[in-house]
Amino acid sequence: MNSNHPSDLTPAGSADSAREFDSEIETNAAERSHASPATPTQIHASGSVGALIRADKLLAGYFPGVNILNEADLFAHEGELVGIIGPNGAGKSTLLKALFGLVHINKGSVTLRDEDITNLRADQLVRRGVGFVPQNNNVFPSLTIEENLEMGSYQDPSSFNERFEAVVSLFPTLGERRKQRAGSLSGGERQMVAMGRALMMAPSVLLLDEPSAGLSPALQDEVFIRVKEINQTGVTIIIVEQNAARCLQIVDRGYVMDQGKNAYTGTGNALANDPKVIELYLGTLAQA
Length: 288
Ligand SMILES: Nc1ncnc2c1ncn2[C@@H]1O[C@H](COP(=O)(O)OP(=O)(O)OP(=O)(O)O)[C@@H](O)[C@H]1O
Ligand SMILES: [Mg+2]
Known about the structure:
Low-confidence stretches: 1-33
Shape: globular
Order of helices and strands: HHHEEEHEEHEHHHHEHEHEEHH
Distance between the termini: 42 Å
Number of helices: 13
Mean pLDDT: 88
Radius of gyration: 21 Å
Helix content: 40-55%
Bound molecules: adenosine-5'-triphosphate, magnesium ion
Number of strands: 10
Strand content: 15-25%
């Protein structure tokens, strides 16, 4: 792309020349976009402006010198429901953990509103309005539902009653069974407890790692409905899902992650109908 800006070339006041230049840029852009669609990096650059949360070119991993994330980019605008799909081992959980301060980011940045939150601790992130529901071991099995929810508001116990009411209005079963130990709940009910606990701090961004994993199709459906409901209360959600086809149906935008970076990105609908995404990812993932 020509690096000269119109103002570098156009004498002040020469609007016609500027218009010619602009239309040339537009023509070139149209030709380019026809020849080759925008890359995930280009989409990130233009789409991420003003995002509520964004990750830029993350390099992160579990051991020094071994990066699992390989320049991963991601953004979510306020109120968006964003999905991440991709094969096993692609780095989806690692990305969520890096956003939540659980995996060290070696390079790149995470920004919430306009604040740099790269490598902040999880408790600092919770205070700033980020919630996380991990893929595994996401409830305290020996504690009751109510105690699990109390753990969610440990940073602000005075808000417990108000938040408890808000959470049980979304998940009435949690209120009815508040004295039941989480370990005795079904898989679907445990997911509700885990999401409820993360909601106790009224997060503005909720990171969900495979909330439907291991559930029957009927319970998976319930999880997706709940996720959509939470989103409709105004919570921005970034959800990693193994049920890729279903995930793309409910999200506003999605990312296909492969080998630690975004292979494809677009609206849920566009990804679900993209022949390459279907061939490479949805064919096998949808049957998983
Ligand atoms: N705690 C860990 N210590 C070392 N390596 C890890 C750890 N967790 C994950 N990895 C490695 O990081 C890579 C990405 O794993 P990650 O869990 O992020 O993948 P994923 O996309 O979430 O996969 P899945 O769909 O199976 O959940 C894998 O090669 C995995 O072996
Ligand atoms: Mg995972």
